[in-house]
Amino acid sequence: AVSAYDPQNIFAKILRGEIPCNKVFEDDHVLAFHDIAPQAPTHILVIPKGAYTSYDDFAANASDAEIIAYTRAIGKIAAAAGVVEDGYRLIANTRDHGRQDVPHLHVHIIGGKKLGLMLP
Ligand code: 5GP
User: Fold this and answer.
1) Which residues are within 8 A (CB) of 37 and not within 5 positions of it... i.e. 6 or more apart?
2) What is the pTM of this model?
3) What does each C-alpha distance from 43 to 17, 37, 86, 88, 117 come to in angstroms?
């Protein structure tokens, strides 16, 4: 593995119920909650329940059921948040160069306003 999973990361603590979150969606494989420091009117974090550090780790090691659940959940959560028609952005910051802060895979769903340009 590129880097071992740290079971003390903040999203692992949220998954164990050790710290609270403002939940948006949950099923067997997925949890979604509002970002604690929203960058736009809609800013939701979607995480798999499994111990995956990053998208590449998840893509390589998750089961088909986990991948299907996660992919579909992101779409459903965006629709439920009401951002589909006007549009939104998905972001998965990864490791050092990607400026990932929390080492548990999370996709940001950001929308609700016209976003700034951000690449790179
Ligand atoms: P990253 O930079 O790793 O892609 O983003 C981590 C995100 O997690 C940030 O947007 C940050 O605001 C959010 N975050 C960090 N700690 C917490 C927390 O305890 N609860 C929630 N809901 N979001 C958090």
Assistant:
1) none
2) 0.97
3) 21, 8, 15, 10, 17
Q: Is 102 in the pocket of ligand 1 (CB under 6 A)?
A: yes
Ligand 1: which residue has its CA nearest to atom 8? 35
Distance from Cα 18 to the centre of ligand 1, integer Å: 16
71-76 average pLDDT score: 98
Find the 64 Cα to ligand 1 centroid distance in Å. Answer: 27
Structural domain boundaries in the chain: 10-111
Q: Does domain 10-111 have CATH number 3.30.428.10?
A: yes
pLDDT at 1: 59
